[in-house]
Amino acid sequence: MKILFAFVIFCIVLFIYLHVQFHLKTSNDLEVYEIDDPSKDKLEEICDIRQPVIFDFEESDKIIETTKKEFLLNHYHAFEMKVRNINDVDYNSEIYMPLALHSVAKLLNEDKTSSYFSENNGDFLQETGVVKNLQYNDQFLRPPMLSNYNYDIMLASENTTTPFRYEINYRNFFLVTQGSVHIKLAPPSSSKYLYPVYDYTNFEFRTPVNPWKVQAKYMADFDKMKCLDVYIEKGKIIHIPAYWWYSIQFNKDASVSCFYYRTYMNNLAISPYIIMHGLQNQNTKVETIKKVDINNLEKRADSKSSEKETTNENSSETSPENKID
């Protein structure tokens, strides 16, 4: 009986180990696959190779029509989306600012510095009901043994780039619903040259290196790695495997619908990330309003008051000359 019990325990441990290893597996080939009208089985087979793949599918037209930027502006302009400034590196405070969609569109259109983009819009999708259109039409993308999923919509001003980062989900699909985008990709083996930042508070795993304009202090290490440049037009969808680094550059009026999927074993494989995220949120207080140095305010106030006094003295000195006898 003990032998049978030990054998069962061994089989369970082996089963879990093999599945966890399967989900942690990566590929580092500098290749992007492209397939036309794949079957469901063919898509699963190619995605499990852990290489980026570009394709299209029949249901994409329905998703595009209900999630593209133009449609959202015409129907849900009063609902709030989250906006982020790519140049704001203060991660101790809230990195997203909620704005009504019409204000977001105005901000992105008037942004001449390519600084702002919108993401993490799950609440917007729920409030507007757009999430139902995604749920009804993404069966082709969903992997077997699906545990949980997340949808998002990304907008940005022209030439804005997202942080260079990676995802840990089992499947990560990005569908271009309007305009076009340019994506830089790097395999997981590049991590040793990218100084990864594990931001468990925002659940973002990024690098301070800007692949579009590499800073001088990172140039020596960045030259040791190679990036893939991919251009995605409207109607095309790309799968970016877990742990692959990517950064998206948006062309004018571009919008992207995002699909993130996890399976039960995927959640088990990334449980250290999930646990750290939970602990970090419990032990960290995120500032919703940025702090201001009171000493600087006092100095400014003193300087302004001294300027006023100087101005008053000058006016009092010149006023007698201007009197009319």
Question: For the CA atoms, what is the radius of gyration?
Answer: 26 Å
Given as residue ranges, the uncertain stretches (5+ residues, pLDDT < 50) are 291-298, 315-325
Helix/strand-derived class? Answer: alpha+beta
Tell me about the largest β-sheet.
9 strands, mixed
Q: According to CATH, what is the class? A: Mainly Beta
Strand order of the largest sheet: 1-2-13-8-15-6-5-3-4
Look at the structure and name the CATH superfamily: Cupin
Number of beta-strand segments: 15
How far the N terminus sits from the C terminus, by CA atoms, comes to 121 Å
Determine the fraction of residues in helical runs and give it as a percent range. Answer: 25-40%
H-E string: HEHEHHEEHEHHEEEEEEHEEEEHHH
**Number of distinct helices:** 11
3D shape:
globular
The CATH topology comes to Jelly Rolls
Key phrases:
325 residues; alpha+beta; Jelly Rolls; nine-stranded mixed sheet; three-stranded antiparallel sheet; 11 helices; 23% strand; globular; disordered C terminus
